[in-house]
Amino acid sequence: MQAAIKKIIKEQGSVYADTNRWAALQARIDQLNPSKVFVLVDANTQEHCLPYFKEQLSDGLRFELLAIPAGEEHKTIATCLTVWQQLSDRGADRKSLIINLGGGMVTDLGGFVGCTYRRGIRFINVPTTLLAMVDASVGGKTGVDLGVLKNQIGVIRLPEAVIVDPAFLDTLPVDEYRSGMAEVIKHGCISTKNYTLEAFKINKEHRGKQLDLIWESIVLKDKIISEDPLEHGIRKALNFGHTLGHAIESYRLSSPLPSLLHGEAIAIGMILELFISVQLQGFPQAELDMISQHVVALYGKNDFSAEAIDRIIELLIHDKKNSHGKVLFVLLENYGAPHLDQTVNYRNL
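The chain above was modelled as a monomer; its predicted structure follows.
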């Protein structure tokens, strides 16, 4: 795929990943003509990503910086209150613009702040992690956690634009890069075996191939979201691995054990949901074995005590996809063949 066509352009939510990405950002800002521009960063992106971001902007663009602490534990309403107050104190009005420069925590929280401040101001996402590039910054999901429960508070609204620059990936620690790979692998499982196998081959050193894979993930997600923007049907397939994955992530946030990165938890969730898929949907056992081997090589193996399993099952009842008191899963019959809204008697598996 040629770099010159790596852009999805819509009235809203345009994604730019070609060599003109930064010119596209400037053009979009000019078009929006905001009264003020704010850039939201966390402690990590302020140190590692903001200097590069500034280098890409035209000298005439002035912005005010909004800084929040780094880490999932700060993806809360309390942090939103701080940002809302800063916006108010600095005279942000309904024509202001927020640029979210960061990973999924920043784009999720910054998008939610933008959707709710003065009943909605415009925002642009500049993802700086692999996870945010292929998942969190694209598709319009915004929100924050409620205690240890993931993404319980939020709305769906597309950003004005998303700017994807793989140069930011050079700033990522290896574990954060691996975390993002889980969402790429997920996209493979719900699309094709070939894409899944390509995902297992990619690492930070494969810059050209890496961008192609990122772009294929974005195109896949965009196609699904275009068909079902509000998640009434096929968009639910993007939740594969997340029912158990989010419960595991929440459990580790609330336990004495070290927390897991989002992708690490989702990787575990995918393997467990593929195991259930083998039992209930006939997903090929050989494919589960192959995927498990690659996932364990990437993320290591996690064991859970009986007490931990009971707690994870309890947390499943809080999953935001549930309906009418039922825990709903995405299960696969094969690559690209998801079964949505599946109930599982998981205690008997």
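Confidence is low (pLDDT under 50) at residues 1-5.
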